[in-house]
Design a protein that fits this description.
about 525 residues, alpha/beta, 29 strands
Length: about 525
């Protein structure tokens, strides 16, 4: 891959790794990955992140096509994992004038990664580095996904370098969201990346989103996968309605009184209140991002012709037209879909809101996927509200003996908590990411494994490797299993969980071979102890 121009003065100089199938040993990458690095050209030239050391030669060729390596003035490291920093030590030997900027935790890690006596310029949240006409502002973003992580923001370029945040293990020749050949695979990669890397840190994800919403930008330069962009509201525009009130309960829209929208592609605000709204949504947004916005029919009558003009798309569902549009004097109404919905509007009126009229995103991707990714991260990190306890039981079983224990636990849990959501899951059969999501969103869980080679079996170990060790610290965990010879699986799982400060119930329960009636009673008693842990939380 040669360099790619993102916009004037900003270039992608990273490398592609299309054949990678496992990242960091355990993370599947069915669509390969990329090691993204960016060059900003100005009076001073800055590299944002480096790349994996195994691709060093290609990497320096990409940089050299734009500027001599000796002309690199600054190297910014948003994160120090070796796929970002592996090339640093060798790069500094060629970029002899370059100074390295990073967070304080990053400076500690880099010394161990490079094994050298390097001088690092430590930056704090809000610090600014001038390149000439452009300035870089550093924004602390810890645990997204390491303690050292930060964002780098360039207002002049309307770009944020978000490191791993919003990224994906996805590799295609043209690494921008405007030209994705396999969109469904990209969306799968985006979700899988979030699940594997960010799902253990939902509160930090929410903090990261708040920091991004406070910035004005149209480009997210991620460290893996396509650059994400935003371009106006190409698939949704509203004709000028003068004074339009947006009713409903959405906090971002409550105080918007004067929202004067032209028939152009961009919303153009007039009057007070709208500035904060635009700031919250990064100035531009799509219809899919404002599904929570309620359009009050007291001020905006969709049945009146001309109030809405929805751009024509290649939506295969375009013929499905809401009856509310059939009488409208809008010759292009047939190319859109309008959804009607009851809302929690305190004024109790029937309200309408527009739905994105294409598929998940436009076929030509001209509008970009930045808003989509931001919205999905907000959805995925939102705390799940439930009045019912969620108590899954996971197991693997070679000959059905551990399964008997799991089913006994399930039966006892249903007796103790009749209204709880309980189920058993065979870790060797389910999709590991989905099982991990169930485990991490539970109020507590039980897990059973037979013993193989003096350890738990691989599917159980793989599931536990995805445990949210922060979010699950206060949740009770019950451990059980059947064994044949020595039975190390249960104590090894307990020891590992205890080392992570997880609340393990007792020493677990292990049963020799096929559980007898007395053994099953022991399982019921142990399940009761686990249930007591749930009751006390």
């Amino acid at each position: 891959m040669s360099y790619k121009k993102i916009k004037e003065g900003l270039y992608s100089v990273g490398v592609l790794n299309p054949n990678l199938r496992f990242f960091d040993v355990v993370m599947r990458t069915d669509f390969g990955t990329s090691y993204n690095s960016y060059l900003i050209k100005d009076k001073k030239n800055a590299l944002i992140d480096t790349c994996h050391d195994g691709f060093f030669e290609e990497y320096i060729e990409n940089i050299g096509e734009l500027i001599p390596l000796s002309a690199v003035d600054y190297i910014i490291l948003n994160h120090t994992e070796p796929d970002h920093s592996g090339a640093l030590a060798r790069l500094l030997k060629l970029c002899k004038n370059a100074k390295v900027y990073c967070s304080r935790p990053a400076s500690i890690y880099l010394k161990a990664i490079t094994n050298g006596e390097m001088v690092f310029n430590v930056v704090k949240d809000g610090d600014v580095l001038s390149l000439g006409d452009k300035e870089l502002r550093f924004i602390s973003a810890p645990f997204l996904h390491w303690p050292d992580t930060m964002f780098t923001y360039c207002e002049r370029l309307s770009a944020v370098f978000t490191c791993d945040f919003l990224g994906s293990h996805f590799c295609e020749p043209n690494m921008t969201d405007r030209r994705i050949s396999y969109p469904e695979k990209f969306l799968k990669a985006l979700k899988g990346y979030y699940d594997d890397i960010f799902s253990p840190f939902p509160s930090y994800v929410a903090d990261g989103l708040k920091k991004l919403y406070a910035l004005k930008f149209d480009t997210a330069c991620v460290s893996h996968g396509p650059v994400l962009t935003r371009k106006g509201t190409d698939n949704f525009c509203v004709k000028d309605t003068g004074r339009t009130r947006y009713g409903g309960a959405d906090s971002a829209l409550k105080n918007i009184e004067n929202f004067n929208v032209s028939s152009a592609d961009l919303f153009r605000p007039e009057g007070s209140g709208i500035e904060d709204f635009c700031k919250d949504f990064c100035d531009d947004f799509y219809a899919e991002d404002i599904e929570s916005a309620r359009y009050n029919t007291a001020d905006l009558r969709l049945k009146e012709a001309g109030n809405f003009k929805i751009k024509e798309t290649r939506n295969p569902r375009a013929e499905s037209v809401d009856p509310a549009l059939k009488k409208a004097d809008n010759p292009r109404a047939e190319s859109a879909e309008l959804k009607t919905e009851e809302t929690d509007n305190p004024r109790g009126e029937h309200t309408y809101f527009p739905r994105y009229s294409t598929a998940v995103f436009p076929e030509n991707s001209e509008s970009g996927l930045l808003n989509y990714a931001l919205k999905k991260y907000a959805e995925w990190s939102a705390p799940e509200k439930s009045v019912r306890l969620k108590i899954p039981v996971f197991y693997c079983s070679a000959y059905g003996y551990t399964k008997k224990l799991a089913l006994t636990a399930l039966s006892e849990l249903k007796r103790i908590f009749p209204s709880a959501e309980t189920a058993v899951y065979d870790a060797s059969e389910g999709e590991i990411g989905a099982l991990a999501e169930i485990m991490n969103s539970s109020d507590g869980f039980m897990i059973g494994s037979p013993t193989l080679n003096r350890n738990a079996v691989p599917p159980v170990l793989e599931l536990l490797a995805r445990l949210d060790m922060i979010g699950c610290q206060k949740k009770p965990v019950g451990v059980f299993g059947s064994y044949g010879w020595s039975g190390e699986a249960v104590p090894s799982i307990c020891a590992w969980l205890n080392a992570l400060r997880i609340k393990v119930i007792g020493e677990g329960l292990k049963i020799n071979f096929n559980p007898s009636a007395d053994d099953l009673e022991k399982m019921r008693v142990y399940t009761g102890l686990f249930a007591d842990g749930l009751k006390t939380d």
